[in-house]
What we know:
Number of domains: 1
Distance between the termini: 43 Å
Oligomer: single chain
Radius of gyration: 21 Å
Structural class: alpha/beta
Number of helices: 19
Strand order of the largest sheet: 2-1-3-4
Bound molecules: Double cubane cluster
Amino acid sequence: MGNYKELWTKLGVDLEKHDKLCAVLPEMYGNTYLTQENRPQGMNYFNSVVAEIHGFRIQELDELKKKGTKVVGTFCVFVPDEIILAAGAVGVGLCAGSEFWVEDGEKVLPRNMCPLIKALMGAKVGGTCPYFQSCDMIIGETTCDGKKKAWEVLDKYVPVHVMEIPQMKRDKDYKLWASEIKEFINKMEELTGNKITVESLKAAMKTVSEKRKALKRLYDLRKYKPSPISGLDSLLISQIAFYDDPERFTQKLNELCDELEERVKEDKGNCGTKKRILITGTPMALPNWKLHSIIESLDAEVVVEENCTGTRYFENQVSSEGETMEQLITNISDRYLNINCACFTPNTGRIDDIVRYVKEYNIDGVIDADLAFCHTYAVESSSVEKELKDRNIPIMHIETDYSTEDSGQIKTRVEAFLEML
Ligand code: BJ8
């Protein structure tokens, strides 16, 4: 990474602590990613994004901020990117996937909490994430109890706007969600000083839609047997999708997909022998590569993730029908409220999605992977297991965190599961 010390200092990054974080990542990335064989050439771009993780993009954000652009941080796929873009701001989905931040998070939050929430808090409290430090505002949501209450603590460090996500999907919930989106529009207009119009919203919808299409194209390619790309590489691409420049990201991903299409043609007739795994559950924020890395070190490949760093991020498009703000807000509200997160009751749509993906992706086994202390997903895991077993779909459940302490144990369990398939 180049020399960005001046920039980090300006952003208020704790340089000493940050050095420790930067020392861990290259080795971890090298061991996990660069040891893979026969990676597509198109992954070079994504490698360079990681190599420059706190450099190039932070500098880009800084240049934009000098021109008056606002940077808005998010932690959930419910926050509509379209609105942030339409207001002329930049959205960054913040990481929260490293064990490194947990210790600082525990200084202000209880220990028996989901590691994602502790990590997001620790990144800010410890001042070690230049993305977080670049944010003018954070958009929180009332998805789970842990996050809902964590925003109150985070608000002491950075302005937070909280969107109320309904917990059910009845007509009145759609109305509540549409009203939250309207309020979000007002908030973004106030923050940026820019009015969101039908034109600016439609343009933003197009940008986001192109990004979703490219991700869908990548996932469709993973349906081939063998998949032309590893689960690890796909996961990295999804994680980068949250903070890279959306237009550049889409272009680079489409270039990679062109290459993968060629690979598929060359691979014709070779069906591969690896077991095909679907992962469902809680999101895997950067740099959480733990489970993929374990699975793919065995005779298996992850070919789809039914989670928020997977299909929930890009499935279903926002309809661009309509010429009024009211209509476009309804379209946005409809698309987002169709995300099947365990924060909803009931949440049967998630099981329908898993069952559909099992067929579409030719899945041998499902791994339901949840972060420790995530109550909604932990409770839902029993119905997911029952519904899949009723359909003779093999499934195993894993609860874990960001530490590597249980990696050996997880590997043994996954090995036994693969043998059984
Ligand atoms: S739409 S999954 S991104 S809420 S893992 S913090 S739920 S205790 S991340 Fe999520 Fe939005 Fe739902 Fe997706 Fe809470 Fe669970 Fe932790 Fe979670």
